[in-house]
Amino acid sequence: MIKEQKAIDKNNPVISIRGLQKAFGDLHILRGVDLDVYKGENLVVLGRSGTGKSVLIKIISGLLLPDQGMVKVLGEEVANLPTRELMALRLKVGFSFQNSALYDSMTVRQNLEFPLVRNSRNLSRSQINDEVESVLDAVGLLQTIEQMPSELSGGQRKRIGIARTLILRPEIMLYDEPTAGLDPITCIEINNLINEVQEKYKTTAIIITHDLTCAKETGDRIAMLLDGQFAIQGTFEEVFASEDSRVQSFYNYNFTA
Ligand SMILES: Nc1ncnc2c1ncn2[C@@H]1O[C@H](COP(=O)(O)OP(=O)(O)OP(=O)(O)O)[C@@H](O)[C@H]1O
Ligand SMILES: [Mg+2]
């Protein structure tokens, strides 16, 4: 099923990037990235392994600094922010990591309480319980609240990882390879969850993937990172109608591998 097209307010970019460059030594990873992400949309970033997708979202969330260019998130230029403002911005940007590591020695409840207690100090016990139960319910795993991560499936752990990011009510969600390593049925569940999160929490999201089904199901728009730049952006159909041989080979590789 292809995602329904929704109206996007193009006057309202939540993330705005111009001329972004990033190198590690001689390795020029990002070579002039321009990108706008609009309020309420799910933007999928596609690209082969090692093209700099994770580097890009680490720069967006202030975990890495750009070498050159402008990166504005919620109106703030990330690279120029003093530490305190950067920390405040980071609370609005939820980062769901490539390997959403949970704390193995803590229950699901404790894993979810952890970011909440650390970042919002004035909550009462019952408010904390309510928040934990509300996000667990949103990801459909309320019944696992007292379990240990080791007792959960890979897909369930991913969902808990997403819940742990959601608990701080971010305005932006950055998903790094949300379906990597999951079986096709579990991938469908995660894709649905990403769309439910968008609906319920009204988040703007960047979803990094090389899973074309995930791209099609979750992306309102697709941007493809090729040779350090977003050469092609558009709907799934628009992007893959491109005659660019790099796009075609990405598509063929994914659907024939
Ligand atoms: N902190 C770092 N120091 C040095 N090199 C780095 C660093 N982070 C990333 N790189 C290099 O930058 C390149 C892009 O890495 P990145 O993790 O963004 O790739 P990716 O597109 O996310 O790939 P994958 O699909 O495999 O996750 C790689 O060659 C990687 O080794
Ligand atoms: Mg990556």
From TrEMBL:
<feature type="domain" description="ABC transporter">
    <location>
        <begin position="15"/>
        <end position="252"/>
    </location>
</feature>
<dbReference type="InterPro" id="IPR003593">
    <property type="entry name" value="AAA+_ATPase"/>
</dbReference>
<keyword id="KW-0547">Nucleotide-binding</keyword>
<dbReference type="InterPro" id="IPR017871">
    <property type="entry name" value="ABC_transporter-like_CS"/>
</dbReference>
<dbReference type="GO" id="GO:0005524">
    <property type="term" value="F:ATP binding"/>
</dbReference>
<keyword id="KW-0813">Transport</keyword>
<dbReference type="Pfam" id="PF00005">
    <property type="entry name" value="ABC_tran"/>
</dbReference>
<dbReference type="InterPro" id="IPR027417">
    <property type="entry name" value="P-loop_NTPase"/>
</dbReference>
<keyword id="KW-0067">ATP-binding</keyword>
<dbReference type="GO" id="GO:0016887">
    <property type="term" value="F:ATP hydrolysis activity"/>
</dbReference>
<protein>
    <submittedName>
        <fullName>Phospholipid/cholesterol/gamma-HCH transport system ATP-binding protein</fullName>
    </submittedName>
</protein>
<dbReference type="InterPro" id="IPR003439">
    <property type="entry name" value="ABC_transporter-like_ATP-bd"/>
</dbReference>
